[in-house]
Amino acid sequence: MAVKVPKYVIPGQPIVPILSTSSTPSTPSTSSTSSTSSTTKIQYEPGKNCRIDTVKHKGTNIPCIVSSVLGRVTISKVDLSSSSSSSSSAAAAAATSENNGKDKYNDVSMGDTGNPGGENVDVDVYQVTVVSKNDPSFNVVENVENVENVDVPEPTKFSMSTPSEHDIVLARVTKITTSRIHVEILIIESHSSSGSTGSTGTVGGSTAADDDGKIQTRKLMTNLIPAESGETFRGIIRSQDIRSTNRDTVQTWNCFQPGDIIKAEVISLGDGVNYYLSTAKDELGVIMARSAVGGVGVGGGASGGSQGGELMCAVDWEHMVGLNSGVIEPRKCAKPL
Amino acid sequence: MNVIDRRRNLGPADAQPLVFAAPTKQQTQSKNNKTSKEEPTSKKVFIETGTIKTSNGSAYLEHDKTIIMCSIYGPRPNFTRSFNDQATMKIGVSFANFIPVENLSIKSTNSINNVNNNGEAGATTSAESQSLEVSRNELEQLIQQFCFTNYQNLILLQNYPKSSLEIMIQVVSLNSQHSFIQLLSDILNCVNVALVDSGLQCKSMASCGYFKSSQSKEQSSKGDVELLVNMASDQNEILGVYCDLNDYDEQFKKGFEQCVENAKEFKTELAAYFLGCIAGSNQ
User: Fold this and answer.
1) What pLDDT does B63 receive?
2) I need a surface site. Which of A71, A144, A149, B271 has the fewest CB within 10 A?
3) What keywords sit in the KW lines (chain B) (predicted)?
4) Distance from C-alpha of A91 to C-alpha of A35, rounded to nearest angstrom
5) What is the DSSP letter of A302?
6) What value of ipTM does the predicted structure carry?
7) What pLDDT was estimated at residue B149?
8) Would you say domain B44-278 falls under CATH 1.10.3720.10?
9) Is position A266 within any domain?
């Protein structure tokens, strides 16, 4: 019996049982392809805004994926065979190759005691996520012919999430000391747990599509700045987390300056006040900075800090140059694009 | 003795009193019919979401001249020295200054009646229970405590570490005929709607049912019975119960079942409204 998945859900509404023996999952979203045979088991995992809860139905308790927010259900196939690769490539691979996401699972490990003898059972793993109605990606058009014409919505909504581990964030440097960099977190760039490869998109967001023209991955920015208070989440980059080589000889003032906009990864929730961030990857570091000297107008001197100078661009991994004056300042630059 | 009416209290001596025409029979009937239409047994509830743009979620509820606004802010950074693995929730309740709260009396038999009562006033409806007049601050504290215990278990606070959530409740207008429990049920429903609008992760969409024995035309010897039940999900999970009963007898059971039915009915209406809204906005 095919499992019917609701397209829109309210908080607490069951979406789908975690295990299903149906031949084809009836997904409301177009982000997955049905590639199951009659003998394939389907396992659903809770993604963002979902959780597992027990629902009582006709006297029996059934573990189900339950929504936590009001929004739209999307189901995407999890490619376990290439888990080390990026999420975007995994999604594209799952979309282009039909049998790519099918893995051999031991039935004992899946908790299925009805099939003794250790016989392998084909299991497809799908991830169920709910896109909240406040999420900027909620209004993204699903079926598009030309990906280049897709309008990526602006991050106008305030965030309903907090930074978590492996999130890529944009932050502003507020203070530097010899041992650490203090920043304030402005934006979560991507909420996926893609790790180092999740930050390959541009700042403004990007989309990718498979052969059918369906959007597979989206990189959207989530604003973390509260509306009224103006207080932001704070973070710390320790000197040993600035770069991955020569950690002991890092000079913090040669890597960042107050006012720089940086891209960093959350490595820990930290203490009560600060998140712990890291820029020890090629694509992490300063993405926008102003020079301390050579600026026009306010703060042009050395005492004015980097907020009043002219805009600089990266010339190599460790230097940025002013666009007009040609002044060169040291920074830990992020890999552009 | 001078008997002249110098102050003109009596009016002119030849004045004639005004005589209005007696209403005809047809006019009297139409007036009665109009009254019966204007005052149905159950008043309609008007709800609007997203009224406060600067908040993460907000709701406006209007029920029989009682107006309540709720706004939700967060998750915001919570700067405490100790590490909080879950969000801290703050609830603020405020009555508008011009609202008379003297009619809102709570009974001393309530289970959560732990506020400092200044004195006793008003007529008691039963021998055991006594109406206690409380101040504005005490009422706000009482609502705040009850809401906190309700929503502490509903919102998934563990998904928002190192942050704080704020729920602000404003009673803009109050129908003088409404009791405290009826006002509390409206407040809970307003917060329930605002929570769904905010997008905060919750276990379920809650709804509150209200019951009053006089509404169902059942007069008991012990007087009116009021009860509210805040439901969390279809699995009959109860977040909070507030009643003014002494004896948990058959009347309590009947009122409880009626509250549950009202809550389920209200939740069905809300679910249809929200699903219709997001389906329309996503097309």
Assistant:
1) 92
2) A149
3) Cytoplasm, Exosome, Nucleus, RNA-binding, rRNA processing
4) 14
5) G
6) 0.74
7) 93
8) no
9) yes
In a domain, A326, yes or no: no
Buried b (16+ CB within 10 A) or exposed e, A10-32: bbbbbbbbeebebeebebbbebb
Are A99 and A154 found together in one domain?
no
Task: Find, in chain A, the residue whose alpha carbon is nearest to that of B268.
Answer: A10
Instruction: Please list every residue in chain A whose beta carbon sits closer than 8 Å to the beta carbon of residue B196.
Output: 10-11, 70
Q: Is residue A337 part of a domain?
A: no
**Quick one: what percent of chain A has pLDDT higher than 70?**
58
Express the helix, strand and coil content of chain B in percent, nearest 5 each: 30, 25, 45
Domain count along chain A: 2
Q: Are residues A62 and A95 in the same domain?
A: yes
Task: Give B278→chain A minimum CA distance, Å.
Answer: 7
Residue with tokens 């059934």: A62
Q: Residue A140 and residue A117: Cα distance in Å, rounded? A: 48
- Is pLDDT above 70 for A196? no
CATH code: domain of residue A168: 2.40.50.140
DSSP label at residue A4: B
CA–CA separation, A98 vs A120, rounded Å?
Answer: 20
Structure tokens at B265: 């009915």
Enumerate the residues of chain A whose CB falls inside 8 A of the CB of residue B200.
69, 160
Residues from B in contact with A at Cβ < 8 Å: 54-57, 73, 75-77, 79-84, 156, 159-163, 195-205, 232-235, 271, 274-275, 278-279, 281-282
What's the token pair of residue A263?
């891209």
Residue B132: its pLDDT value, please?
65
Q: State yes or no: pLDDT of B157 exceeds 90.
A: yes
Pair A219, A272 in one domain? yes
Whether A73 shows a pLDDT value over 60: the answer reads yes
State the residue for tokens 């049920």.
Answer: B185
**CB neighbours of B105 closer than 8 A, spacing ≥ 6?**
B121, B122, B131, B132, B133, B134, B180
- A133, A148, A165 — which closes off a domain? A133
- Please check whether residues A121 and A148 belong to one and the same domain: no
Per-residue pLDDT of B199-247, as tens digits, reads: 899 999 999 999 887 644 444 455 667 788 887 866 678 899 888 776 6
Query: Is residue B150's pLDDT more than 80?
Result: yes
What is the greatest pairwise CA distance in chain B?
A: 92
Average pLDDT score over chain A: 71
Range of the structural domain that residue A116 is part of = 8-133
The CA distances from residue B263 to A56, A58, A294, B54, B123, in Å, are 20, 22, 67, 30, 30
Res. A304: pLDDT tops 70: no
A161 and B75: CB-CB below 8 Å?
yes
Res A308: pLDDT: 60
Residue B90: the pLDDT is 94
User: What DSSP state is assigned to residue B162?
Assistant: T
pLDDT digits (tens, 9 = 90+) for B119-129: 333 333 333 44
Residues of chain A with Cβ-Cβ distance to B279 below 8 Å are: 7-8
